[in-house]
Amino acid sequence: MKGVPIKFKGESVIGEVYGYFAKREGKAYIVNDIGTWVSVDEDSVVQLIGYDADGNEIYEGD
């Protein structure tokens, strides 16, 4: 059985962004799949917890 990848989403000034969560110098970021660090509101960051029957991603709080 394949596990759920470690992935996060968060709100930025450009909208929702997806990738890895990181903190640097007290600020929260999502690092996307091309390596760009996007500043996000830390309170908006949630982790991927699984998939629904159609294969759509489900994040905490969905």
Description of the molecule:
The chain is 0% helix and 52% strand. It has 62 residues and is mostly beta strands. It has one domain. It has a six-stranded antiparallel β-sheet, with no helix packed on it.
- Domain count: 1
Determine the N-to-C terminus distance.
Answer: 24 Å
Beta-strand residue percentage: over 45%
Adjacency order of strands in the biggest sheet: 4-3-2-1-5-6
Tell me, rounded to a whole number, the average pLDDT.
94
Largest sheet report: 6 strands, antiparallel
The helix content is under 10%
Topology order in helix (H) and strand (E) letters = EEEEEE
Number of strands: 6
**What is the count of DSSP helices, taking H or I runs of 4+ residues?**
0
Structural Rg: 12 Å
